[in-house]
Specification:
Elements lengths: L4 E7 L4 H9 L7 E8 L5 H8 L4 E3 L7 H14 L4 E4 L8 H6 L4 E5 L11 H7 L4 E8 L9 E8 L6 H27 L5 H10 L4 E6 L2 E6 L4 E7 L7 E6 L3 H10 L4 E2 L9 E5 L7 H15 L2 H12 L1
Parallel strand pairs: 1-2, 1-4, 2-3, 4-5
Antiparallel strand pairs: 5-6, 6-7, 8-9, 9-10, 10-11, 11-13, 12-13
Bound molecules: glycinamide ribonucleotide.
The site of glycinamide ribonucleotide has 13 residues, from α1, β5 and α6.
Length: 318
């Protein structure tokens, strides 16, 4: 499995949704793990549970603090814990625009209504007063507007005769505990492919004109239709522990020069090395994907048939 997403969960109280996420994350195939539980209320019951389960916690009262300053402290704690995704779980604080922007596309919330109905507070009272047949819960991406981001999943919950806000809330909560971990897992999984090195190499390679993919000696290779291979993805080749993309250089001299200049980034790949290919490492921890894209484009040119490069040279002349 790809590395698990590192989830930061923000709570303000009981934390039962946090607990649902925590216990879901105990499954071996769950794509997220809780890296931090943070609260704006140091007395939040959920903090005690998280700590007892061995999860790092952070608590800071928001009282007397400007919203942006408080959020900056939460943000710092999340970053320090290496959090990659944020889940709001009964977090009863409006977020500053800076914080929302900082975690855009990587922050979700659970809300106890079938959005877009009943944003804000007292959702169950309002559903009952309106005579609705169902209440329910929604998981949505967090955007600047309160309870307004794209909905990722919902569960309707039937309203029973005699329901009060409390009895309805209790049943909706059961649905929340089922919905949140499932939607979060799907969402995290859906976001993963773009982050792993092979997917990114694939995306950059197949964006080049008439580029195709084909396995070559068990490794994903990329070639130009009617031309030659311009890239191979290499992961732990013969147990060398290296993740890299192999691309063409102009020849062994350029290859040697590159390796001398930056031996942490470049290496001479076995088998292809004698013909001037170079390995560009993708496991340095700070891969410059724009640079990888330039390498792929250049290698593509060296591998493409004349009919394609001629067209490009003409275009470049303008
Ligand atoms: C949950 O019902 C959650 O949907 C709601 O607060 C409760 C928190 O319970 N959230 C909101 O109303 C957000 N606007 P929990 O602390 O036990 O998870």
């Amino acid at each position: 499995m790809a590395d698990r997403a590192r989830l930061g969960v923000l709570i303000s109280g009981r934390g039962s949704n946090m607990a649902a996420l925590l216990y879901a994350s105990r499954a071996a195939d769950c794509p997220f793990a809780l890296a931090l539980v943070a609260s704006n209320d140091p007395d939040a019951a959920g903090l005690t549970l998280a700590a007892a389960e061995g999860i790092a916690t952070f608590a800071l009262s928001h009282r007397g603090m400007a919203r942006a300053d408080f959020d900056a402290r939460i943000d710092a704690a999340l970053r320090e814990a290496g959090v990659t995704h944020v889940a709001l779980a009964g977090y009863m604080r409006l977020l500053s625009p800076e914080f929302v922007e900082r975690w855009a596309g990587r922050m979700v919330n659970i809300h106890p209504s079938l959005l877009p109905a009943y944003k804000g507070l007292h959702t169950h009272e309002r559903a009952l007063a309106a005579g609705d047949s169902h209440g329910g819960c929604s998981v949505h991406l967090v955007t600047a507007e309160l309870d307004d981001g794209p909905v990722l999943g919902q569960t309707p919950v039937a309203i029973l005769p005699g329901d009060t806000a409390e009895t309805l809330a209790a049943r909706v909560l059961i649905a929340e505990h089922q919905l949140y971990p499932r939607i979060l897992a799907d969402w995290v999984r859906a976001g993963q492919p773009a982050d792993d090195p092979l997917s990114r190499v694939r995306e950059l390679s197949l964006a080049l004109p008439e580029a195709r993919e084909k396995l070559s000696h068990g490794a994903p290779g990329f070639f130009v239709e009617g031309g030659k291979f311009f890239a191979y993805f290499s992961a732990d080749h013969h147990g060398n522990g290296i993740t890299a993309v192999l691309v063409r250089t102009s020849g062994v001299e350029e290859q040697a020069m590159l390796i001398e200049r930056d031996p942490a980034l470049y290496y001479r790949p076995p088998y292809l090395g004698p013909s001037g290919w170079i390995g560009v490492r993708l496991d340095t921890g700070d891969t410059d994907w724009a640079h990888v894209g330039e390498w792929l484009a250049r290698s593509w040119r060296l591998a493409a048939p004349k009919r394609l490069t001629r067209l490009m040279d003409v275009a470049d002349a303008f």
